[in-house]
Structures are given as structure tokens and as C-alpha cells.
Amino acid sequence: MSPLNDRADHAGHTAIAGAATGGTAEAVQDLDRLILLGIVADLRRRTRLRDGGPHDPGAVAQDLAAAPRHQWIVGHWLAALHEHGMVSRHDAGGYHGPHAPRRAELAEARARMESARAALGYSAELADLMLRSLRELPALLRDEVGVQALLYPDGEPATAEAVYRGNLISRYLNAAAADVLRDLAERTGRPLRILELGAGIGATTADLLPALDGHPVEFYLFTDLSPFFLDTARRRFGAGFLRYALLDIARDLPHQPGGLDLVVAATMAHNAPHVGRLLDQIAALLAPGGRVVLIETVREHPQSLTSMPFALSTAAGPPERYDGRAGTTRTYLRREEWLAALEDSGLRVDVDLPRQGDPLTALSQRLFVATADH
């Protein structure tokens, strides 16, 4: 891997210096288990799974009075529970024999959550989000409560900030990404032109902007699908070289071929119906030597099962995918798939972090940086 990879990794670890990462894998497993136990306990209590079975996911969803657009989530949960040995799947289809969590088992999982969240640098708001999502499962499934209400209680971004910025892996990845931008700014002999896709509450933006201090910037275009996020960003970051625009990555990107020095997509490129097409479009926007910075989850952990699927549901059910995820309910691409997709789009991968063997890999979030050589 390139010297840029070494530099970015050093910057990332400097940002979390002093944090003990040796217990990261165990902490992740503890949080995953808490959510799995909560889901299986709820399904056993409220559905026909408590009898002999086997039962089709659709029938289980009916027991839960799931809204039509959320019915697919029940099957998604059952597949995850089966993967982790908490429910059996019949050869002919259908699920049966759910694990019956004991009260002491649930209490222990709840107690371990506190030490796990501390080990991962998760704030109290993130722990509260996990517990609230479990309590609200019935209302979430019936579409009476939206996941946005959990992420932004009272319209405030503190909980979302904890999810997307205020934790160990986000601090590492954002610091590494900021150093990549700093390196680019030092190398480019003209004012930078930057596009950020799906910038959300600006959790990554907030760490990137300081890297531009002292460097000329023509514009930094902050985009998102939601006016709520644009309004929040305007209040947070102001104007100057920052511009704001609504943008849906499922449609065409801005038409400025070969004109951008950097495209940033933090925890959002997986939302594209076809990741390869998105990367092709990004590659076409980059000037020679321009870079794309991706922060991506490469494996769906159970701890996101009570939030992410609800955020992805469309009026017709699961989001449509036309790449390697077609015909599945997979949310994320694997690391190898991202690397191949970047290469297929004519982009040279210069950064792929965390390194193999780093305890942070247990969190399954990665930074990819690729350069346009055209």
C-alpha cells in the first residue's frame, strides 16, 4: 500500500492515542448479542414462533402487525438470528425453535453493554438509542414511530452525532480522512474543488474542514437528500467557501466532468442502487490526480438491526439493488467488493484502513481512498 496509507493510519491512531483497543472485538460481540437477545425475546413473546413451527417470515410479520413496507425486516432479522444460532431454519423454509433468553441472561447482556460502550468510546446517547430501539420495536414495525425520531429526538442531532462521530472508530477514520485531504491540499497548486455526498449532519465534514486551514478553496459543496440536514449544516458551518445543495445519488450527480479534486462519501455510498455506477460517475467528475474518500461499513452487525433496516425501507419494502446485492436484503458491500468496484471504475486504491490485524477491524468500518490517474 502507498505511503499515503501509512500517513493516514498514523493520523488516525494519533487521534485515539491513549485509548485501549485490545478488547474491541469482545465489546462488539457484547453489543451485538444484546440486540439479538432483545429481538429473539420479542419474537418469541409476540409471535407464533413460540410453538413448534416452522413458520414463514411473512406469517411472523403478520403476528407483529408489521406495516407492509417493513414486513421484509422480519425475514431479515430471522436470517440474522439463524446466522448466530438463535433460531433454526427448516430445510423446506420457515423458522422454528427460537432461543428462549433467561431473565438472568438478559440482565447480564444489559450489564455488559455499559462496559462495551465505554470500551468502544460510545456515548451514553448511543447506548440509550440501542435500548430505546428495542423498546420501540413494536411501534417501529407498525410504522407508528420512525427511526429518525430515535436518531434526532426533539429535532436535535446529539444522538446522531454520537453514532457518526463521537466514538473510537469514527475518530480514527475521520482523522485519517482529514490527513488525506491535508495531503491533497499541500500537493494541489490551485484552489480546491470539493463535493461531499450525503453529508448528513456533517459528522465527517466537521473533521475535514480544519484540514483546509491555510489552503485556498474554490468551493466545498455540501449535499444531502434532506433539507433538514442542509439547514442544520448552514447553522453549524456557515458560508464562506461552503455551498449547499439538495442531491439524490440515485439520480445523476452534478455535471462537472473532470473538474473536482475530491469527492467525499462518508457512510452513505452503500445507499446507491448500483455502487459501480456511482463510482463510475464519481471517477468521471475527478480531475487527474483527484481523489475519492469513502468511509464504509463492510459488514452488517446485529447492533444495527433495530435501526438501519427501518431507515432503508421504502414504500415498496426493501431498497432496490442492482449490483452484487441484487435479490438480497444486504445493506453493505464487503471490503473485497469495494476494492474491486473502485478498480473497475478506473480508480487506484491508495488507502485501505484499518490495517489487517488492527483491533479496530472488529468494528467493520473502513476508509478507502482512491485516485483518478486519467
UniProtKB/TrEMBL annotation:
Source organism (scientific name): Nonomuraea maheshkhaliensis
PANTHER family named among the record's database cross-references: METHYLTRANSFERASE
Protein name: Methyltransferase type 12 domain-containing protein
Residues annotated as domain Methyltransferase type: 195-292
InterPro entries linked to this entry: Methyltransf_12, Methyltransf_Superfamily, SAM-dependent_MTases_sf
Pfam families to which the protein is assigned, alphabetical: Methyltransf_12
Tree of life domain: Bacteria
Family matches, as SUPFAM superfamilies: S-adenosyl-L-methionine-dependent methyltransferases
